[in-house]
Amino acid sequence: MNCLLVFYSRTGNTKKIAELLSTEMNCEYEEILDTKKRKGFIIGFIKSGFAATREKLTIIKEIQKDPKLYDLVILGTPIWNKRMTPAIRTYITENKNRFKSVAFYCTMGGKGGPQTFESMTKLCEKTPVSTLEITKKEIKNELHLDKIKNFSQQFKS
Ligand SMILES: Cc1cc2nc3c(=O)[nH]c(=O)nc-3n(C[C@H](O)[C@H](O)[C@H](O)COP(=O)(O)O)c2cc1C
Questions:
Q1: Which atom of ligand 1 is nearest the CA belonging to 110?
Q2: What is the pTM of this model?
Q3: Does the domain made of 3-153 have the CATH classification 3.40.50.360?
């Protein structure tokens, strides 16, 4: 399957999963870069969390790959305040008319997966063919590897 994995990552967890997933699924990937500073506790945590809660958009760097050229777009986001990040919200808003089908994954402390996927579904105006939640604890204990294998398996014919 011709697939594109698109993700945003502030501290590396979602990126780590993107790298593993794209290798496992043999698909291309695109990292979304937020032009807003997201480092540190005040800006990175408090303000960013608030922006996610208020469903704010941001300005992302120009994308390199056209999602219209792919059968499936996998969208990956960290969960912030039980929501998708502003960078992924912006990417979806700007590109949803170019998605043929979608799947979602998220990394998180442990809360907000279903709520986040529901709002991504609404925003994309498409039901995801599959979803995947991975916690920081699972990454630490290397439990993410099996989850990635299982997720990828369903796309292999
Ligand atoms: C502002 C902010 C809000 C967060 N809110 C949640 C949350 O509601 N639920 C949760 O399980 N994890 C929450 N987290 C934890 C992140 O989702 C988790 O650390 C994620 O793996 C980070 O991904 P990244 O390393 O790709 O940036 C939050 C983190 C930040 C920075």
A1: 11
A2: 0.97
A3: yes
